[in-house]
Structure formats: structure tokens, C-alpha cells
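Open question from group meeting: does this chain pack into something compact, or does most of it stay loose? Before anyone orders reagents, we agreed to write out a predicted structure and look at it together. Recording both the input and the output here so the notebook holds the full record.
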Amino acid sequence: MMVSSIPDIISVILISLGAFSLFVGGVGIVRLPDFYTRSHAITKSDTLGIMLVLAGLAVYEGMNVNSFKLVVAIIFVAIANPTGTHALARAGFKYGLRPWPWPWFRRKKKKKVQL
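C-alpha cells returned:
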């Protein structure tokens, strides 16, 4: 199969960038140390990846009802993914789940210098 038209090229680029973003999110969830950094990485990369893949599919499909449904799905993902992750992170914090380097959360007292 030979990709020849401009919409086909654009859709391949968008889908490839989306797949790369999803891969980076998968690596981030394995490499990062705690719940908050993992949820941050997976939310950002998965939201971007899903939106790029759906945009590539919408460009490939052309102007019809299916493209409109894909655009509605993109809008839903853009709203729902960050909102859901924020709710999970807030619930984890209220439950008592602490961030990874917890002492950085506290302020250090400054030492007074005597002259």
C-alpha cells in the first residue's frame, strides 16, 4: 500500500506521534517512583496520545459523520482524563498517600547567624 495523498500523510504522522506519546507514557509509569508522578506522566502522555490518534483517524476518514464523532471523542478525552486523574490524586492525598520525597514538602527552618 502506497501513501500518496496529503490527508493520508498527515494521518500517518498524527497516528505515529500519538503512538509514540502512548509509548512514552508506558515507560513513565514503569520508571517513576510514586503514585503522583506516575499519574501525572500517564495523564499527560495518554491524553495527548489518544487525542493525536483520534485526530489522525478523523483526518484519514475525511469530512463525514464518523469524523464528527471522533472530534466529539477528542473533546471528551480532553475534559475527562485530566479531571479523573485530579480526582484520583486528591483522593489519594486525602487518604494519606504521601508524595515520594516527603521531607521536601515541609519547610526547613533557617538558622540564625550570629555575628
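Observations to bring back to the group:
Residues 6-100 form one domain.
The radius of gyration is 21 Å.
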